[in-house]
Amino acid sequence: xxxxxxxxxxxxxxxxxxxxxxxxxxxxxVDAVAxxxxxxxxxxxxxxxxxxxxxxxxxxxxVVVEVDDGLARSLADxxxxxxxxxxxxxxxxxxxxxxxxxxxxALKVVGNIPYxxxxxxxxxxxxRPRPRDIVLMLQDEVARRLTAPPGTxxxxxxxxxxxxxxxxxxxxxxxxxxxxxxxxxxxxxxRITPRVPPPLTPDEEVRLRTLVRAAxxxxxxxxxxxxxxxxxxxxxxxxxxxxxxxxxxEATDRPERLSPDAFIRLAEAIGGARSSG
Length: 277
Prior knowledge:
The protein is an alpha/beta fold. The chain has helices at residues 23-33, 52-55, 69-79, 118-125, 140-147, 157-163, 202-217, 223-229, 240-246, 260-276; strands at 19-20, 40-44, 61-66, 85-89, 108-112, 133-139, 166-174, 179-180, 187-194.
Protein backbone atom coordinates (compact mmCIF):
# COMPACT_ATOMS: atom_id res chain seq x y z
CA UNK A 1 0.00 0.00 0.00
CA UNK A 2 1.49 3.35 -1.08
CA UNK A 3 2.09 6.03 1.50
CA UNK A 4 -0.35 8.89 1.42
CA UNK A 5 1.23 12.18 0.39
CA UNK A 6 1.27 14.81 3.16
CA UNK A 7 -0.96 17.85 2.64
CA UNK A 8 0.74 20.84 1.08
CA UNK A 9 1.76 23.44 3.64
CA UNK A 10 0.29 26.88 3.19
CA UNK A 11 2.94 29.52 2.40
CA UNK A 12 4.03 31.59 5.38
CA UNK A 13 4.18 35.30 4.70
CA UNK A 14 6.51 35.79 7.69
CA UNK A 15 9.16 33.69 5.90
CA UNK A 16 8.60 35.27 2.51
CA UNK A 17 7.49 31.97 1.01
CA UNK A 18 6.53 31.95 -2.67
CA UNK A 19 6.77 28.48 -4.19
CA UNK A 20 7.99 28.01 -7.76
CA UNK A 21 5.36 25.87 -9.52
CA UNK A 22 6.39 26.19 -13.19
CA UNK A 23 8.11 22.86 -14.06
CA UNK A 24 9.89 24.30 -17.12
CA UNK A 25 11.50 27.02 -15.04
CA UNK A 26 12.41 24.51 -12.35
CA UNK A 27 14.35 22.50 -14.92
CA UNK A 28 15.88 25.62 -16.44
CA UNK A 29 17.30 26.69 -13.07
CA VAL A 30 18.64 23.21 -12.37
CA ASP A 31 20.24 23.13 -15.83
CA ALA A 32 21.99 26.42 -14.99
CA VAL A 33 23.53 24.75 -11.93
CA ALA A 34 24.91 22.00 -14.17
CA UNK A 35 25.02 19.49 -11.34
CA UNK A 36 26.79 16.22 -12.05
CA UNK A 37 27.71 13.02 -10.19
CA UNK A 38 30.99 14.57 -9.00
CA UNK A 39 29.34 17.76 -7.68
CA UNK A 40 28.32 18.75 -4.18
CA UNK A 41 25.32 21.09 -4.16
CA UNK A 42 23.92 23.31 -1.41
CA UNK A 43 20.28 24.24 -1.94
CA UNK A 44 18.96 27.14 0.14
CA UNK A 45 15.26 27.37 0.93
CA UNK A 46 14.04 24.27 -0.94
CA UNK A 47 10.45 24.81 0.23
CA UNK A 48 8.30 22.03 -1.17
CA UNK A 49 11.22 20.62 -3.16
CA UNK A 50 10.59 22.21 -6.57
CA UNK A 51 14.31 22.14 -7.37
CA UNK A 52 15.24 19.36 -4.96
CA UNK A 53 13.37 16.71 -6.93
CA UNK A 54 15.51 17.48 -9.98
CA UNK A 55 18.81 18.01 -8.16
CA UNK A 56 18.58 14.79 -6.12
CA UNK A 57 18.89 12.68 -9.25
CA UNK A 58 21.84 14.61 -10.66
CA UNK A 59 24.16 15.66 -7.83
CA UNK A 60 26.72 13.42 -6.21
CA UNK A 61 25.78 14.99 -2.87
CA UNK A 62 22.93 17.39 -2.17
CA VAL A 63 22.52 19.33 1.07
CA VAL A 64 19.24 21.22 1.45
CA VAL A 65 18.88 23.86 4.17
CA GLU A 66 15.32 24.74 5.19
CA VAL A 67 14.36 26.97 8.14
CA ASP A 68 10.64 26.12 8.17
CA ASP A 69 9.79 23.36 10.66
CA GLY A 70 7.05 21.67 8.66
CA LEU A 71 8.82 21.86 5.32
CA ALA A 72 12.05 20.52 6.82
CA ARG A 73 10.15 17.52 8.22
CA SER A 74 8.48 16.83 4.88
CA LEU A 75 11.77 17.06 3.03
CA ALA A 76 13.43 14.74 5.55
CA ASP A 77 10.60 12.21 5.16
CA UNK A 78 10.85 12.28 1.37
CA UNK A 79 14.60 12.56 0.80
CA UNK A 80 16.11 11.31 4.06
CA UNK A 81 16.31 7.70 2.83
CA UNK A 82 18.44 8.76 -0.16
CA UNK A 83 22.16 8.26 0.49
CA UNK A 84 23.20 11.35 -1.50
CA UNK A 85 20.77 13.82 0.13
CA UNK A 86 21.08 15.50 3.53
CA UNK A 87 18.30 17.72 4.91
CA UNK A 88 19.46 20.37 7.38
CA UNK A 89 16.83 22.15 9.46
CA UNK A 90 18.51 25.53 9.99
CA UNK A 91 18.62 29.22 9.14
CA UNK A 92 21.19 29.65 6.38
CA UNK A 93 22.26 32.98 7.90
CA UNK A 94 23.32 31.09 11.03
CA UNK A 95 25.03 28.29 9.13
CA UNK A 96 28.41 28.75 7.46
CA UNK A 97 28.53 26.86 4.14
CA UNK A 98 31.94 25.54 5.21
CA UNK A 99 30.15 23.55 7.92
CA UNK A 100 28.44 21.30 5.40
CA UNK A 101 31.31 20.56 3.01
CA UNK A 102 34.95 19.51 3.08
CA UNK A 103 35.80 21.49 -0.08
CA UNK A 104 33.99 24.84 -0.17
CA UNK A 105 35.95 25.89 -3.24
CA ALA A 106 34.19 23.14 -5.22
CA LEU A 107 30.70 23.68 -3.77
CA LYS A 108 27.84 24.89 -5.98
CA VAL A 109 24.97 26.82 -4.38
CA VAL A 110 21.43 27.26 -5.66
CA GLY A 111 18.31 28.77 -4.14
CA ASN A 112 15.07 30.66 -4.48
CA ILE A 113 15.85 33.44 -2.02
CA PRO A 114 13.15 35.18 0.07
CA TYR A 115 12.92 38.80 -1.00
CA UNK A 116 13.09 40.13 2.57
CA UNK A 117 16.57 38.70 3.26
CA UNK A 118 18.13 38.67 -0.21
CA UNK A 119 21.06 41.01 0.47
CA UNK A 120 22.09 39.38 3.78
CA UNK A 121 22.11 35.94 2.14
CA UNK A 122 24.18 37.12 -0.84
CA UNK A 123 26.83 38.68 1.39
CA UNK A 124 26.73 35.69 3.75
CA UNK A 125 27.56 33.37 0.84
CA UNK A 126 30.39 35.67 -0.23
CA UNK A 127 32.20 35.54 3.09
CA ARG A 128 35.58 33.83 2.91
CA PRO A 129 36.09 31.04 2.01
CA ARG A 130 33.70 31.20 -0.93
CA PRO A 131 31.84 28.56 -2.97
CA ARG A 132 32.72 27.81 -6.56
CA ASP A 133 29.46 28.98 -8.11
CA ILE A 134 26.16 30.48 -6.89
CA VAL A 135 22.87 30.44 -8.84
CA LEU A 136 20.09 32.40 -7.15
CA MET A 137 16.55 33.46 -7.98
CA LEU A 138 16.09 37.01 -6.72
CA GLN A 139 13.67 39.86 -6.96
CA ASP A 140 14.12 41.37 -10.43
CA GLU A 141 14.97 44.78 -8.97
CA VAL A 142 17.83 43.28 -6.95
CA ALA A 143 19.12 41.41 -10.01
CA ARG A 144 19.17 44.70 -11.93
CA ARG A 145 21.05 46.42 -9.12
CA LEU A 146 23.61 43.62 -9.02
CA THR A 147 24.31 43.92 -12.74
CA ALA A 148 23.88 47.68 -13.20
CA PRO A 149 26.75 49.45 -15.00
CA PRO A 150 28.51 52.41 -13.38
CA GLY A 151 26.84 55.75 -13.94
CA THR A 152 23.27 54.43 -13.75
CA UNK A 153 20.71 54.99 -11.00
CA UNK A 154 20.58 51.30 -10.10
CA UNK A 155 24.35 51.13 -9.56
CA UNK A 156 25.36 51.38 -5.93
CA UNK A 157 26.94 49.75 -2.90
CA UNK A 158 25.33 46.36 -3.60
CA UNK A 159 26.82 46.13 -7.11
CA UNK A 160 30.26 47.26 -5.95
CA UNK A 161 30.29 45.04 -2.86
CA UNK A 162 29.43 41.90 -4.82
CA UNK A 163 31.30 42.58 -8.06
CA UNK A 164 34.51 43.50 -6.28
CA UNK A 165 34.84 39.83 -5.26
CA UNK A 166 32.74 38.01 -7.89
CA UNK A 167 31.47 38.11 -11.46
CA UNK A 168 27.69 38.49 -11.81
CA UNK A 169 25.60 37.40 -14.78
CA UNK A 170 21.86 37.80 -15.24
CA UNK A 171 20.68 34.50 -16.74
CA UNK A 172 16.93 34.89 -17.36
CA UNK A 173 13.74 36.50 -16.13
CA UNK A 174 11.05 34.70 -14.12
CA UNK A 175 7.55 36.15 -14.24
CA UNK A 176 5.47 36.39 -11.09
CA UNK A 177 2.88 33.95 -12.45
CA UNK A 178 5.43 31.14 -12.01
CA UNK A 179 4.87 31.25 -8.23
CA UNK A 180 2.14 30.41 -5.77
CA UNK A 181 1.12 32.58 -4.12
CA UNK A 182 1.72 35.13 -6.88
CA UNK A 183 4.13 37.79 -5.58
CA UNK A 184 3.77 41.50 -6.34
CA UNK A 185 7.03 41.62 -8.32
CA UNK A 186 8.90 39.70 -11.00
CA UNK A 187 12.07 37.72 -10.40
CA UNK A 188 15.28 36.88 -12.22
CA UNK A 189 17.96 34.20 -11.97
CA UNK A 190 21.58 35.31 -11.63
CA ARG A 191 24.89 33.53 -11.52
CA ILE A 192 27.49 34.80 -9.04
CA THR A 193 30.97 33.38 -9.60
CA PRO A 194 33.57 34.33 -6.97
CA ARG A 195 36.89 35.50 -8.36
CA VAL A 196 39.76 33.04 -8.05
CA PRO A 197 42.20 34.01 -6.73
CA PRO A 198 40.49 36.76 -4.70
CA PRO A 199 41.62 40.22 -5.85
CA LEU A 200 42.02 41.46 -2.26
CA THR A 201 43.41 40.20 1.01
CA PRO A 202 40.95 39.85 3.93
CA ASP A 203 42.19 43.14 5.43
CA GLU A 204 41.81 44.89 2.08
CA GLU A 205 38.25 43.60 1.77
CA VAL A 206 37.40 45.12 5.16
CA ARG A 207 38.88 48.42 4.02
CA LEU A 208 36.95 48.21 0.75
CA ARG A 209 33.64 47.63 2.56
CA THR A 210 34.28 50.67 4.74
CA LEU A 211 35.07 52.78 1.67
CA VAL A 212 32.04 51.62 -0.33
CA ARG A 213 29.65 52.09 2.58
CA ALA A 214 30.97 55.60 3.22
CA ALA A 215 30.94 56.59 -0.44
CA UNK A 216 27.35 55.57 -1.10
CA UNK A 217 26.11 57.02 2.18
CA UNK A 218 27.22 60.32 0.64
CA UNK A 219 26.56 59.39 -2.98
CA UNK A 220 25.46 62.93 -3.94
CA UNK A 221 28.82 64.35 -2.87
CA UNK A 222 32.06 64.35 -4.84
CA UNK A 223 34.76 61.79 -4.06
CA UNK A 224 37.29 64.38 -2.95
CA UNK A 225 34.95 65.63 -0.25
CA UNK A 226 33.91 62.10 0.76
CA UNK A 227 37.51 60.98 1.23
CA UNK A 228 38.40 64.11 3.18
CA UNK A 229 35.33 64.60 5.35
CA UNK A 230 33.65 61.25 5.94
CA UNK A 231 34.54 60.19 9.52
CA UNK A 232 35.17 56.58 8.47
CA UNK A 233 37.76 57.66 5.88
CA UNK A 234 39.37 60.99 6.83
CA UNK A 235 42.06 60.86 4.13
CA UNK A 236 44.52 63.76 4.59
CA UNK A 237 43.84 66.57 2.12
CA UNK A 238 47.41 66.36 0.81
CA UNK A 239 46.95 62.69 -0.21
CA UNK A 240 43.52 62.90 -1.88
CA UNK A 241 44.71 63.60 -5.44
CA UNK A 242 47.31 60.83 -5.07
CA UNK A 243 44.89 58.11 -3.98
CA UNK A 244 42.25 59.13 -6.53
CA UNK A 245 44.85 59.13 -9.27
CA UNK A 246 45.82 55.58 -8.38
CA UNK A 247 42.21 54.58 -9.03
CA UNK A 248 41.96 56.54 -12.26
CA UNK A 249 39.40 58.83 -10.63
CA GLU A 250 39.09 62.55 -10.01
CA ALA A 251 38.06 64.59 -6.99
CA THR A 252 34.92 65.78 -8.79
CA ASP A 253 33.67 62.25 -9.55
CA ARG A 254 30.65 61.00 -7.66
CA PRO A 255 30.63 57.42 -6.32
CA GLU A 256 28.36 55.98 -9.00
CA ARG A 257 30.93 56.85 -11.68
CA LEU A 258 33.59 54.52 -10.20
CA SER A 259 33.66 50.90 -11.36
CA PRO A 260 34.14 48.04 -8.86
CA ASP A 261 37.77 47.72 -9.99
CA ALA A 262 38.28 51.47 -9.44
CA PHE A 263 36.97 51.06 -5.88
CA ILE A 264 39.41 48.17 -5.38
CA ARG A 265 42.34 50.34 -6.52
CA LEU A 266 41.10 53.22 -4.39
CA ALA A 267 40.90 51.03 -1.27
CA GLU A 268 44.43 49.78 -1.91
CA ALA A 269 45.70 53.37 -2.37
CA ILE A 270 44.03 54.54 0.85
CA GLY A 271 45.70 51.70 2.72
CA GLY A 272 49.06 52.59 1.22
CA ALA A 273 48.63 56.28 2.02
CA ARG A 274 47.84 55.49 5.64
CA SER A 275 50.83 53.15 5.94
CA SER A 276 53.24 55.70 4.48
CA GLY A 277 51.65 58.49 6.51
